[in-house]
16S rRNA (Guanine(966)-N(2))-methyltransferase RsmD (Confluentibacter flavum), 179 residues
Amino acid sequence: MRIISGLYKSRKIVAPKNLPVRPTTDMAKEGLFNILNNHFYFDEVSVLDLFAGTGNISYEFASRGTKDIISVDQDLGCIKFINQTSEGFKMPIKTIKSDAFKFLEKASLQFNIIFADPPYAFTLEQFSKIPELVFQNKLLEDDGVLIVEHSKETDLSQLVHYHYSKSYGGNMFSFFENN
C-alpha cells in the first residue's frame, strides 16, 4: 500500500503478512479522498478510524494534515504496527485496542469523519449496528460523515441515516449523515 497524497505522498508501507487485514486498495482510497477533499479541510477535522487494520486510512489523513486521529482495532498486532509506523513518520495517530462496537458504545467524543472498514463477511445486522451506535451516541459533528467500506454484494441503502454509495472496483463506500 502507498500514501496517495500529502506530506508523505508516494511512501510505501509494507504490513507484516500475519496481520488479519484487507487493506483498502489505492484506487478506492484515492476515490474516497477525492470525495472528502471537496467537503473538508483535512487540517481542521477529527477522524475516527474503526477496524483500522494496517492504519492505511489513518496514514492518509495524517499525510494530508489531520492532527486529531484515533485508530481502533481489536488486534494487538495491528495496533503495534500502526504505532510503529505512525511513530516512524511522526504522525499524530492515537491507537486504541478495542472491539469497534464496544468502543462505539462507550465513546463520548464527536468526530467530523468516522471511517469503518469491517470484515466484508459481516452480516447486514452487524453492518447496521455501526451507524446505529454512531447516531444513537451522537458521535458525529453536525456536518460530519460516517463512511462504511464494504463489498459490492452488500447493500446498506436501507440503513438509518444512509445518504449514498460510491463504488471503486470491488470496494463500495456507503456514506451516512445526520440529516
Q: What stands out?
A: The chain has five helices and seven strands. Strands lie at 46-50, 68-73, 93-97, 111-116, 140-151, 162-168, 171-177.
